[in-house]
Amino acid sequence: MIRSFYAPETARSTRPNIGKDGGNPVKRVLSALLVLMLVLALLPASALAETPYTRADAAVYLAETFGLADIHASRIEGYETTPKEMGYSASSDAITAANVIAAAKDCVDLPTAPKIEAVINAQLLSLADDHLSFRPDAPITVREMATAVAKALYGADLKIDHLQKAIDAGLLKASDLTDEPITATQVETLFAFLQDMQVVSVFATADIHGNYIPYTSSDGKFEIGSVARIKTVMNEVEARLGEDHVIYVDGGDSPYNTTLANVSMGNVSVDALSALGLDATVLGNHDFDYSLENLLRLRDRAQYAMLSANTKFKEGKVYAGEKEYPFGDYITKEAAGLKFGIFGVTDDQSAATTLYSNTYDIEWDDDLTTAKTLVSRLKDEESCDVVIALSHVHSKNTQLITDNPAVDISIGGGNDIAGRPTIINGTQYLINPSKHGEALNQINVVVLNGKMTGVIYSQIFLTDAYAEDPTVKALVDSYNDEVAASLEKVVGYSAQNLEWSTQLVRGQNSPIANLVTDALLDFFAIYEPDICLVNGGGIRATISKGSITYGEIISVHPFGNMACSIEVTGQQILDALELGSMFTPDAESGGFLQVSGLTYEIHTYIPSSVTLDANKSFVGVTGARRVKNVMVGGEPIDVNKTYMLASHNYMLKDGGDGYAMFKGAKVVRDGVMIDNQVLINYIKDALHGTVGSEYENPYGQGRIKLVAEAPANQPGNPASSSSHNGSGISVG
């Protein structure tokens, strides 16, 4: 049974009231045009005839009329000759310079450049054939201008004849659409119907994962992120459209997964999103990365609705003072005369992608079935004009909207994908909202004569070209100051130095590597993992004798990789070990494998025969194998046996350091906890706060042995055999 939920008044928007005319920017634009006409009326007729509307004029008109946020593009080295890319399309990719640079290279110095970039981003007007030039001073024809307006009305992403649709609707006359340059007077008369138009701007984020302060892009070329920049953009649009014409929603996975977020136990996330005026979020699987009690506390702290209609307590597990379904189903909001219904569902497989102990008392109803029930309720009982789904259901995001034709817009959380919307059933918008606070998505709902006509979409990458709102920045900075102090917090004690150097972790066994791999293996103990493999390049610092601080642990694991486990064959393990050892001992390699639950030898006198592709990813082994005597749990590895492998997402899912042999492997547990927190928990719980003498040996515990010379041949163990691993087990 689905429960009705309405956000309390504290969860509603608290944005300042801009003014009664804020919902209709066309009136302001047209007023300006009337003033211009009066000025032009004083000019000679010959002058009027020589004053066509330029492409820059058209861009300003479209951006202002349809409430598009300014796009402040970055000027990064090489931007002049690099075509802009609108977004990436795979979770393993990242925002690069090509995504954030200026698209219109001939407009970067114009005061109207942000509006020109906005119109290009929204695909209302396009660049020249060189994909670099906008030609701002070129005249725009009546037909071109009318087409741009029609795209704005009905949605540029739809594969339809926009202009013909506007003609069929009686908004434009075919006889008026010439290929002559349009003038300001013609703009005022031809598009007079827009006086009755309103725009509701729906802003969306997803998969922030605790990234609330700026950080450096993966290619190191620019700064990106910051919720304070989100506030700056929203303030601009609210001033243009009016506070009651702006809605902000989030697609989940916001509270944790960075040091800043984790130390505050999610408080910075909730407070920052509240300060932005968030209306509703859906719970993602990573919202359960800390205790359920803490999540319920964050729910009560938030000034917005936390939705997850299918999350419920297990029978007999309902906490005191809680309902069976502790989170909201949906909220409704009215804007521009329309009623918006916003609902949220969480992946019903979330128990497999977060820490088991945090979800022990809860379970999830079928997410797709719940969505159908909610959509029906919003349409039939609530009489909603526009239905927005907050669907943090990963690979099922597409199916959810396909199954529900009445869903107009869906924020597809959980996939960490950026780029243009996916159009479903010809009219529905599945938004690919990006991740880690990189982008703010503007989804403008156009309302004409009391009905929604279409959607204008822009994805705004939040680089340092955007100013940070001082109030929100101060809020986040205060939490960051607390984090700095918390780094001195003692989390355990070490009886000896756990030495680190690149030579130790990237070419041989070491005590710090043993500690790290043991921690990950122990973390998944309930699932009985067999081995742990970790790339040495992911281990970055010494733990000194004495008190161990939180800051030291962060230094050991600075990248914030997420614990992950998969099922693999013995052959895949052997291939991975072969790849990791290919440069030993001649060169240090970040892909060198540190291990737990497994021992192996690297016979360095055998040249590596590993082959790589152009991306330096594993392809195969063409000759003799140098990895031998591989033992798992004291037994020779079996190439045909299935083993459970513990590590992190960088290696197992993203193929980091070339580990392509794990592609397509069955994921047992996905992204359940950040690696530095795994290490802290291991020291505190499994080792009872003290790293003891078992980690004393500066060269490790003999898990990895380098053999520099060929041993004498022994029966069943030929030293140079390419078909055996040294234990008599065929490796194929």
**CATH topology assignment of the largest domain:** Purple Acid Phosphatase, chain A, domain 2
Strand content: 15-25%
C-alpha termini separation: 55 Å
Helix content: 25-40%
Number of helices: 21
Radius of gyration: 29 Å
pLDDT < 50 runs, ≥5 residues: 1-20, 42-49, 714-732
Structure description:
By secondary structure, the protein is an alpha/beta fold. The chain folds into two domains: 9-476, 4-Layer Sandwich (Purple Acid Phosphatase, chain A, domain 2), CATH 3.60.21; 489-707, 5'-nucleotidase,  domain 2, CATH 3.90.780.10. Helix content is 27%, strand content 20%. The chain is built from 21 helices and 30 strands. The strands form eight sheets. A six-stranded mixed sheet has the order 6-5-4-1-15-16. A hairpin with a 2-residue loop joins strand 15 (439-448) and strand 16. The radius of gyration is 29 Å and the shape is globular. The protein starts with 24 loop residues before the first helix and ends in a 25-residue tail after the last strand. Residues 1-20, 42-49 and 714-732 have low confidence and may be disordered.
